[in-house]
Amino acid sequence: MIPAAFDYVAPTSVEDALAALAEHGDDAKIIAGGQSLLPVLRMRLNAPEWIIDLGRIESLRGVRDDGDAIVIGAMTPHAVVGADPLVAEHALLITKAVEHLADAQVRHRGTFGGALAHADPAGDLGAPARALGASFVIQGSGGTRTVGADDFFVDLFETAIGEDEILTEVRVPKHTGWGAHYEKFVRVAHQWPIVAVAATVRMEGDAIAEAGIGLTNMGSTPIRASGVEDALAGQPATEDAVHAAAERATDGTNPPSDLNGDADYRSHLARVLTRRAVLAAAGA
Amino acid sequence: MTATQERPADAVEREIGRDRRRKEDQRLITGRTRWTDNLQLPGMLHLAMVRSPFAHATITSIDTSAAQDAPNVVTVLTGKDFGEELGVCINAWPITPDQVTPVHSPLPADRVSFAGEIVAVVVARSAAEARDAAELVDVEYDELPAALDLKDAAADTVLAHPDLGTNKSALWVFDSGEAGTGGNVEDAISKARDDGIVIEREYRQQRLIPAFMEPRSVVVDPTSEQLTMWSATQIPHILRFALAATTGVPESKIRVIAPDVGGGFGGKLQVTPEEWIAWAVARRIHKPVKYTETRSESLLSAHHGRDQWQKLTLAAEKDGTVTGFKVELLADLGAYVAIVGGGVPVLGAFMFNAIYKFPAYHFACQTVLTNKTWTDAYRGAGRPEATFGIERMMDELAAEVGVDPLAIREKNWIKHDEFPFTTVCGLEYDSGNYEAATARAKEMFGYDELRAEQMARRASGDKVQLGIGISTFTEMCGLAPSRVLGTLDYGAGGWEYASVRMLATGKVEVTTGASAHGQGHETAFSQIVADRLGVAFEDVEILHGDTQVAHRGLDTYGSRSLVVGGEALVRAADKVIEKAKPVAAHLLEASVDDLEFSGGRFTVRGTDQGMGIGEVATAVFAAHDYPEGVEPQLDSDATYDPVNFSFPHGTHLCAMEVDTETGALTMRKYVCVDDIGNIINPLIVSGQVHGGLVQGIAQALWEEAVYDDSGTLVSGSFVDYLLPTAADTISFDIDHTTSPSTTNSLGTKGVGEAGTIASTPAVVNAVVDAVRHLGVNDIQMPCTPERVWRAINGPGAGGSTTADAMPHFDGEGEQA
Predict the structure, then answer these.
(1) Which residues of B touch A44 (CB under 8 A)?
(2) How many domains does chain A have?
(3) Minimal CA–CA distance to B21: which of B644, B682, B646?
């Protein structure tokens, strides 16, 4: 498992990283923790000439409060995000998802932005990002732009980040007081989810006032289950009501068939797991 | 001179039976030891293999020029560059005289027979440069149709090796009527069809990958008069013999060393193309070479295990008394007949009858060649397949009769007062007590309470159903009596060798021909020698794995090391005592007849005179004063050929919860009570049982080597080949009952494979038991949640696995 030879640069500012990216263009890959890129290199599925490491850019690390949103630096390791009190207070769904993300080693090396930019539809962060309506701050030589979660994920391993751009931070609207649950279905603990459902709900009394639902591995991108969200609004958090709403979980999905399950089984799972996730998020 | 050889007075009386921490663990766990890949020799070059991406293809051309020109490449060689000195990979067990056996060149020049087969080897100054250059070798192939599906291959629809004219390698048959060991099974079945019960099932043993921790590695040094090969192998002695037999190098010019080896599970019981290529390349270029495989290469090309279809017919009377068992197997050999090859299913031939008193039995196994990775021994080798078949069928019989599956077993098993018992296969089970193991297991499990909970959940229609699975297994261990192997046409014997050397300072060096690769030989064998000679545990050193150190041996597999190798050790140690006796008598000025030996001391009966065996060793080293006509040394050796197999058994009980909505499975409880005879080191035994259980549970629930329609291994990484970790298992409750083996001095039976053999059917029986009331009577392994869900919601055993991997490692991702 020896990668092909490559050159390596570790800039200390986003500007330097963008300059390196501009210089090497197609021959370069950005490493942002390396938990997906290193296996790719070691299995020789790709052989970039340059690796640009964002690991030394301090400004890309950490979580901060920014009024109606919390802002997570792209290079913040999962373990830091998972333990962050701001995240737990205002975006509990992310805390819950990170708890089950890969294993302890990966959570310490892998980064929040790296995983989202990799855009594996089976990754554990895309569905929470969509459920919470996160937005993505992308910096290029021409400046900074912000892309909403609904537009960020384009296709399998493809995002709105341009070839000359870098994801710098993720803004998550505060969901203070919302209940949350990440229901992940795996055969062994270290596996990517066969299907997972990210659910967060705002309760008013015994009823669900608002809900955010994201689906993992039910199509070529993380999916927002708007049909379920709409159906849940104003419903009591009961088995029957949630069951009926969860039947809409497969609207607009296109699940894969592979070793771990065929598409029809995944669709079935999505409905069952959505019901369970919503009920757990509602504390029912 | 120091004489520390006597055991301190306050030491425990016996080492055997004591929870000794393993001597080898510090170096093995920290990795601060000599693995083959750690070796660095002066001027050593590195190899990288070019492998076929096609399952079956003609090699039309190989252009090595770009690779030859790459930085620091010494040479690039293909099959055409070698003659007979390349040798062949051998099958040591042609199971029938007319077995069809394709020639297995390590580096074929004209045609590849599985995806992963080696077509060229790059030699470079570093491993990285070799691998870079391997990508530059341009091979052109003409793809041929590939024989992939086992049943299709058995029908010869597509030929794996067109020149052989068939895929059918050998048909091996045992029939109790013909052998005179029992009745005619067809009579039993036809009688049962008229007036009894006939259960017919077809079970799948999926293909598995041994997945040992240390990838295979080989180093060859051709620069001395004697050529040396270091290899991460289970079988240094057999490897040396095979190199001599097939490459034209005299055996006396070959030294093979298996340094510390990181696991094998049968997967390193092989003579491999990689070893043969490294050997040939080193001899060709007269430089030391090293090859270490990547994990991907290991999963792709190191031999796989299991892969059978089992067609089973069980006949019984209406009350559930079994009257006959007919077993028809198809076994996938893969592209070549490996070293044990068709012998693996044959090792199960005598075990399908298990602990039950079948009056009639028939076993037939058709081995089949396909264009997939070759298969061979994998922990249990033949016996897990047999145990799965019979233990699943006993549950089916119980369901048919309408009684508890433990009751149907008890009705049919050999009672404890019937031992020794000669089975319908002609094997003599020397000892056992199935009643005792089962009673203890039931008690630990809380069997009746769990059955009551199961009934309550069924009655309430709980979404989570509970199932209880049983496996009252036995196995044959201690491979093997050489005469028996001879009657089966196996190419070697089954004896084992040990020597005991008494050093001048009273320390003891022991060599064993059983080559450990993680089992704990150094600790357990030290305990045996410490007790036998009465020396301190710490004063015993166990040497193994080097044909120059332990020159004789038949290596480690088949739960044989303790049962066969341990007995050789006992006999060698006893010879040391016998040799020391006249010397001690001389020094004590007593008659030999008046000497007693115990606790490491010779004493003169009726006096306080005595001396330690270490003092005798020191005395013969000095050799100033010893009797006439006696050699001044105590060193002894022994070769032990077992007179019978040993037959460990046990009762395993498993409780599984099945989420009927999703098919998800949760293990609730696992109890096993194994009777493995006398135990040398309970801690090592627990480790063997725990690891074995997980490996068997993994076959039931997780592991499967899957090929797609073009013969590509889809489960080619640990992303898709699901090995469990500690996070996926529960704490097991283990205990033992003891019926010592009567055929060896220590009364041991072997434990290396027991957990793996027993646990697979226990788990599947539990899963099926949980949903049997929903109309399910089988779920194909691995019992994935999807299969369980499909079985609950439709006919069949859950369908086959879709041969597509999840794409997590796309090379084009943006920021990862």
Answers:
(1) 135
(2) 3
(3) B682
